[in-house]
Please model this.
Amino acid sequence: MGRVREVIITSGIPGAGKSTWIRKNTNPYMTEVFSADTYFFNSNGRYHFDPSKLGEAHSSCLKNYTIRLLQLHNDSRPSGDITLVVDNTNTSAWEIAPYYSLAQAFNIPVRIVRIIAKPETAFSRNIHGVEKEKIQKMADRIEANPLPPFWNVVEVPAGE
Model:
């Protein structure tokens, strides 16, 4: 059976370095990444972010993650351990909860990697054109709403 070794859920403001952390800290051959960003790539591989479709993008991400979990759970062929990564901002517990709960339902360990970055630094690096004020509000939301203490949360400084 295809086994999911771990689910990693990244959390952090746009431009914090979530995708960079994933590239540096996971094996690309044994990792599958689920991101709302995927929704914004066209058939030619060009990225075009449309904020009006963000809800659709997140729904698509959760759907694809769920389908893959079910496929791996039902796969009887032997294969190596796979890590599934959810690469979104996930600034609130309610954004993380569906991914976390699904992994828990399949008894898969979950690690939340929260990338800590200064809003000014993140603003200068974000590729989505998110306004500085919005990034600051997201950073404030992270600060004001800690995740449940029983979740496995690892805080990593930006650039690590």
Observations:
- Strands lie at 3-11, 31-34, 81-87, 110-116, 153-157.
- The chain has a mean pLDDT of 91.
- The longest helix spans residues 54-74.
